[in-house]
Specification:
It is found in: Golgi apparatus membrane. Keywords: Glycoprotein, Glycosyltransferase, Transferase. It holds the Pfam family Glyco_transf_61. The structure is a single chain. With 384 residues, the chain is of the alpha/beta class. Helices cover 27% and strands 21% of the residues. The strands form two sheets. Strands 1, 2, 3, 4, 5, 6, 7, 8, 9 and 10 form a ten-stranded mixed β-sheet that branches. The protein has a five-stranded parallel β-sheet with strand order 12-11-13-14-15, sandwiched between helices.
């Protein structure tokens, strides 16, 4: 019995949509449509797919995926003008891209998860293309595909590929579940891939057991806007007194390679919750990530964002939750304000309302005496 060939479109996931088809697949950029032609297709079926890992995004145009029979209606099927022998992946930019954290969790890691199995023999067909974004991450894109990128929205061709995916594989934010991944890929594979892409020399952090006289390097991420440290010099003095060589800097827009090199040269990184901590992906194995969680009741979000991904990447993770007294929100609200006494009253109003206060208005005056044990714990990790 011949098994009917048809696209497999998974639309039930609350976060993302993904279709995969093998055989006679035709992509018409002008109509934003992908047509899968099969002699075994008894009737036409159609799906509207958001080719981005947050399917609720309203600024991402949908792609039509259609299963069509190759019979009497063939005249209405798009006719191939370019034939390729390699797989193709249709995905969109836009959405939250441009935010460093979302660049990785929404596109780069899902793209790795989808494309790495082909070892470069795959072509990317991109909707809502952002040339500046592709230039910023060119080393990653070029290592995943050795073929020319296609701006699908402005393509006059009907591109035909034997294997097409629409959307990107996605498990969770900065998470790879090996049991569900092609070739059982893991976060360890992703970070190894990044170190290779940017020619980063260090695969492992310092071992103080083997080099007891050396000072481990600590990177203090100095955010320039919201959620920044207000007492960096004091933090640096305390860290140096605790035995670290301190590097203090923040990433420059567009210079991924330069900052990746700085991060990889360090054995620990500390910073207030924010996109800059995404750079943990460039740390050597067994390094330490210390996330400073702002007030008030942001622990769940902080753990989801960095705790689980960094642990999966072979790092040690420490989480420091500041007290109200360490928050500059005290300069704006009295101590008995619901901002401090009833944080859930803001959380219940939704992420953006909560973020207006706890993420956009808050800086951190770190209590260095209260924080010092966390640096000593990081030192202990590096002695193992």
């Amino acid at each position: 019995m011949i098994q009917m060939a048809k696209p497999i479109c998974e639309l039930s996931n609350p976060r993302t949509e993904f279709c995969e088809m093998r055989g006679d697949v035709r992509i018409d950029g002008k109509s934003s449509s992908v047509v899968f032609v099969s002699p075994h297709q008894p009737r036409e079926e159609e799906w509207k797919v958001v080719p981005y890992v947050r399917k609720q995004m309203e600024n991402i145009p949908k792609v039509t995926v259609r299963a069509a029979a190759n019979g009497g209606a063939s005249a209405i099927l798009p006719q191939c003008t370019v034939n390729q022998a390699v797989p193709a992946i249709v995905f969109a930019l836009g959405g939250f891209t441009g935010n460093y954290y979302h660049d990785f969790t929404d596109v780069l890691l899902p793209l790795f998860l989808t494309a790495r199995q082909f070892d470069g023999d795959v072509q990317f067909l991109i909707t809502n293309i952002q040339p500046w974004w592709l230039l910023k991450y060119q080393p990653i894109i070029k290592r995943l595909s050795r073929y020319e990128l296609v701006d699908l929205d402005h393509s006059d061709e009907v591109l035909c590929h034997p294997h097409v995916m629409v959307g990107l594989r996605f498990h969770n934010d900065l998470i790879i579940e090996p049991a569900r991944a092609p070739n059982a890929y893991s976060m360890l594979d992703f970070t190894e891939f990044l170190r290779g892409t940017y020619s980063l020399p260090r695969d492992h952090a310092i071992s103080l057991r083997e080099h007891p006289s050396k000072k481990p390097r600590l990177l203090v991420v100095e955010r320039k806007g919201k959620r920044r440290f207000t007492n960096v010099p004091e933090i640096v003095r305390m860290a140096e007194a605790s035995g670290f060589e301190v590097v203090r800097t923040d990433a420059k827009f567009g210079d991924v390679a330069g900052f990746a090199s700085v991060v990889n040269s360090c054995d620990a990184i500390m910073g207030v919750h924010g996109a800059g901590l995404t750079n943990f992906v460039f740390l050597p194995l067994n390094a330490v990530l210390i996330q400073i969680v702002p007030c008030c009741e942001l622990e769940g979000m902080a753990s989801h964002t960095f705790r689980f991904p960094s642990s999966d990447a072979g790092l040690h993770y420490l989480e420091y939750n500041i007290t109200v007294e360490e928050s500059t929100l005290l300069d704006m609200y009295p101590r008995d304000h619901p901002v401090f006494t009833d944080p859930q009253s803001l959380h219940r109003q939704g992420f953006f309302k909560m973020g207006e206060v706890y993420l956009a208005k808050q800086n951190v005056r770190l209590d260095v005496n209260r924080f010092r044990p966390f640096l000593l714990k990081a030192m202990d990790f590096l002695r193992r």
